[in-house]
Amino acid sequence: MLFNSLDFAIFLPIVFILYWFVVNNQLKYQNALIVIASYVFYGWWDYRFLSLILFSTIVDYAIGILLQKIDSKNHRKALLWTSIFVNIGLLGFFKYYNFFVDNFVQAFSFFGQDIQPNTLNIILPVGISFYTFQTLSYTIDVYRGQLKPTKDFISFAAFVSFFPQLVAGPIERASNLLPQFYVKRQFNYTKAVDGLRQILWGLFKKVVIADNCANVANTIFNGYETYSASTLVLGAVFFAFQIYGDFSGYSDIAIGTSRLFGFNLKQNFATPYFSRDIAEFWRRWHISLSTWFRDYVYIPLGGSRGSKWNQVRNVFIIFIVSGFWHGANWTFIVWGVLNAVYFLPLLLRNKNRLYTNVVAENSIFPNIKELIQMAITFSLTVLAWVFFRAEDVTMALNFLSRTLNLSLFTLPQVRPTDVFVFLLIFLGIEWAGRRHLYAIERLWVKYPRFIRLLIYYIIAMVIFLYGGKTQEFIYFQF
Q1: Are residues 178 and 199 in the same domain?
Q2: Would you say residue 328 lies in a domain?
Q3: Domain stops at, among 185, 209, 233
Q4: Quick check: is 156 in a domain?
Q5: How many domains does the chain have?
Q6: pLDDT tens-digit profile of 207-236?
Q7: d(Cα 452, Cα 443) in Å, to the nearest integer?
Q8: Do 116 and 161 have their domain in common?
Q9: What is the 3-state secondary structure (H, E, C) of the chain?
Q10: Tens of pLDDT along 398-422?
Q11: What does the alpha-carbon distance between residue 163 and residue 169 come to, in Å, rounded to a whole number?
Q12: pLDDT, tens only, 308-318
């Protein structure tokens, strides 16, 4: 079920009314309703894959309880590896089986051996990468003694399948979200209004920014061999805003929807395109995934401890694994390697924690140095996004090679004026709200209520009148 669909527009109010007016003040029934609603939400896409969520839920719930009862270190490790094997095994089969088979065949073909592969027509379950990591974090935290296992199966099932963030995050930690299912929730008008405001901004990002940028980016990427270099650069820039508006828009809708039901999810994006170096970018982009890899892969590998060689190795591992998490294609691995290469000079010079504050924190506009830093970081990011968007590595290299000619200094052949205007307005609002959890959280608070409502009404009208051709959320494929 898409957030930007009529189905969801009907589904959400029904669940909201049942939650607050039918089963209100009955915690167990509220949690049970969330589980049912979440399974309906997910099953709307393909009910057959509900069994996967249920299976992962049962496995990690049981392992969590067993970890508390067993003291033997070896037995506890065996239980942990069982959880990892089951979850990563399911993820690997559905997402990477054909990738490995195809590359295995190509490797043998290189040496003159012709073998017939047995590939399968596998449908990738929506959101499997997200809920797999969410359940894994629970088991790992219980194993480490950082979290007590739950004996409340309904609460745990609600945590795993919580519909606002089920299919595209944020990837919530059990330590943050699970305890919220244990406590009685009271309707909070202020929180609900804030949630609606964040949903509105998320829909604007998705429908007006991402979908309109997608129309332009798709046209240019699909016919890149016929366009000038300047047009190709424009297409890459538009894809950068497409993927940001699409994914951060989803996160805003997910977080806002959660607040309607009394839950607080963690921030997932913090104006990453205003970053001054690539390290800052990765602290601001897909925060829930970046911190997941940091805590469960990077730090266990040694993190920033040890020799520089170990640090470099760990950085490359984390970025390559992150790239591979995104999809079974060499383009994502190259994208990960590129970001590791960008990160390397900062690591070697111990500059990777240089910028932890907001750019131009105490001023309205950035200075010249900050402008140059943001421009360079954004340009490097856009270059890497070309690999993310391309169908294969060859296409990405051809696309980039065609930008290296004098037509780079001509006017683009595609000039969508309306999209440019929306982007300028969008960037202005994002800049003004860069200090907040989402751009319009605190903007206009000093204005009279009538003015604020008028602004929100205008945003809603823009969404209805100028939304681009409906596109699926990009991260559904991951």
Answers
A1: no
A2: no
A3: 185
A4: yes
A5: 2
A6: 999 999 999 999 999 999 999 999 999 999
A7: 9
A8: yes
A9: CCCCCHHHHHHHHHHHHHHHHHCCCCHHHHHHHHHHHHHHHHHHHHHHHHHHHHHHHHHHHHHHHHHHHCCCHHHHHHHHHHHHHHHHHHHHHHHHHHHHHHHHHHHHHHCCCCCCCCCCCCCCCCCHHHHHHHHHHHHHHHHHCCCCCCCCHHHHHHHHHCHHHCCCCCCCCHHHHHHHHCCCCCCCHHHHHHHHHHHHHHHHHHHHHHHHHHHHHHHHHHCHHHCCHHHHHHHHHHHHHHHHHHHHHHHHHHHHHHHHCCCCCCCCCCCHHHCCCHHHHHHHCCHHHHHHHHHHHHCCCCCCCCCHHHHHHHHHHHHHHHHHHHCCCHHHHHHHHHHHHHHHHHHHCCCCCCCCCCCCCCCCCCCHHHHHHHHHHHHHHHHHHHHHHCCCHHHHHHHHHCCCCHHHHCCCCCCCHHHHHHHHHHHHHHHHCCCCCCCCCCCCCCCCHHHHHHHHHHHHHHHHHHCCCCCCCHHHHC
A10: 999 999 999 999 999 988 988 999 9
A11: 10
A12: 888 999 999 99
Residue 139 lies in a domain: yes
Residues (pLDDT < 70) of the chain are: 96-124, 468-469, 475-478
The Cα–Cα gap between 405 and 230 comes to 9
Cite the active site residues. 326
Same domain? For 216 and 270 the reply is yes
Neighbours of 446 (CB within 10 A): 8
The alpha carbons of the chain give a radius of gyration, in whole angstroms, of 23
Last residue of a domain, which of 158, 185, 212? 185
* Cα atoms in the Cβ-side hemisphere of radius 13 Å centred on 294: 10
The single residue listed with the structure tokens 């244990």 is 182
Amino acid letter, 341: V
Residue 467, amino acid: G
Would residue 159 count as lying in a domain? yes
What is Dmax (Cα atoms) for the chain? 75
Q: Are residues 177 and 218 in the same domain?
A: no
Which residue, chain included where needed, has tokens 């009404």?
457
Question: pTM for this one?
Answer: 0.92
Q: Are residues 416 and 376 in the same domain?
A: yes
**Are residue 217 and residue 359 in the same domain, yes or no?**
yes
465: containing domain: 190-276+355-477
Please tell me the distance from the alpha carbon of residue 399 to that of residue 2, in angstroms, as a whole number.
32
Count of all residues that appear for the chain in the document: 478
* CA neighbor of 249 nearest in space, from 189, 297, 201: 201
> Do 225 and 262 belong together in one domain?
yes
The encoded tokens of residue 3 equal 């957030």
Instruction: Give yes or no for a contact between 249 and 209, defined as CB atoms under 8 angstroms apart.
Output: yes
Verify that 235 and 162 share a domain, yes or no.
no
